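Team,

Forwarding the record for the chain on the shared tracking sheet. I've put the sequence and predicted structure together so nobody has to dig through attachments.
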Amino acid sequence: MPTRTAARRDIRGANELTLAALALVGFFALAVATDFNLLTAGTMDAFLRFLAVPVVIGLAQMAVLAVGQMNLSVGALTGFCAMASAALMVDGGVPAPFAVLAALVIGAAAGLVNGLLVVVTRINGFIVTLATMTIFEGLRYGINGTGTYQGYSPALLRIGHASVLGIPLVFLIALAVAGGVALFFRRSVPGRHMLASGGNPFAAHLSGISNNRSIVLGHALSGLLAGVAAVMIVADLASVNASIGDDLLLPSFAAPIIGGVALTGGVISVWGTVLASFLIRLVEVTQAQFNINRRFIDLVIGAVVLGAVLLGRARHKITGGER
């Protein structure tokens, strides 16, 4: 009889293979439908460049889902970090490397605050991050109102549009981040503790694992990844304003859930999240290419997410039953 962990690993692997097959079929179908315009250098560059942020945002949400939490503030926090970084460069004259570091520190610190609030108040992370989401939105707007920041570091913008062997650098960075997150959860003690806390908090506690520490770390990691996404946005766009991040909440949940991450915690899939982000990007390109009503696309993605949640519950029963 296979162990519960082995069964989960087999299901996760099968899910990633399925997503990879769907990604290949979908990509080929869209290439044919566009008379292979999708495969031109300019189109592929835009496709992969705009895929980088959804990948990192999906991983940011996955970090808190790993411990059975949610982060509704991930989009607003990303926008706040982006605005803060741009403000430092434009208004403060701060060199780009320090502005980038500031975005990462702000994201991690904000995530740390989210985690501490959850632990100290014992209020569900859904409610806590719903509250902090509105706070970050206010802070994001308070930096420059409805104004737009532009004309910041040309060197940073060059990095945002640079390519390596025809592949956008920001996309390669996103893959490197995904690899780092995968190693963190697979090889590091804190990462394994987070999964143990998310999978079965009571058993984790009996094993000497601090569930509170895992929750705080999950939110801090989520905030740090939101800061990484913010840096990518600033580097990619020639201007940023207070609307940055408004459209990131749904993709942040859709990618990990479709990718096989359990809402109940304890089960993650880094590469499933990456592949799901790719599929969602394919859907968005299809919508733009054929002028499909955006509301219909949102309906389809929402239905797929709901189906993935129901499938996840079925998997949970197969691999261990209700906790």
